[in-house]
Design a protein that fits this description.
four-stranded mixed beta sheet, Signal recognition particle alu RNA binding heterodimer, srp9/1, 23% helix
Length: 132
């Protein structure tokens, strides 16, 4: 089995895709108005409209209701990303902070309220955990 993507359900695909394009620098593919995907080297962030849930199971996912998952992105320099994004994200939850497990982390919310973590491993042990 291979883990390949995370899909976020939203009421505004264009707005959320544009937000993640700005954050990641990756251009979203938009094969349909109701769907976009940002394809990275290790995983894809898919963005689907709430109306697409009818194709799966109506009401199974509800936009703007996530309070458990965090979308995480590995970056070269968390502090530089903080300076770049400050003022352009809806809410900074945690300014860059070095965590006990060795990552320096910036936590903010996307326009739908989903948590996003940009992190940089700061210790050798943290870097080793990411080695494949």
């Amino acid at each position: 089995m291979q883990f390949v993507s995370v899909r976020v359900i939203t009421d505004d695909v264009a707005r959320l895709a544009e937000f993640y394009e700005r954050v990641t620098g990756v251009e979203a593919r938009r094969p349909a108005e109701q769907f976009a995907e940002l394809v990275g080297p290790s995983c894809t962030l898919a963005i689907g409209s709430a109306e697409t849930m009818a194709l799966f199971s109506a009401g199974a996912a509800v936009p703007e209701s996530n309070r458990t998952a965090i979308l995480e992105f590995l970056v070269d320099d968390v502090d530089r990303e903080y300076e770049r994004l400050a003022g352009s994200v809806p809410e900074i939850v945690q300014e860059p902070t070095t965590m006990p497990w060795g990552n320096r982390s910036l936590l903010f919310r996307d326009p739908d309220g989903n948590l996003v973590n940009l992190f940089t491993p700061m210790t050798e042990a943290a870097r080793e955990r990411l080695a494949r």
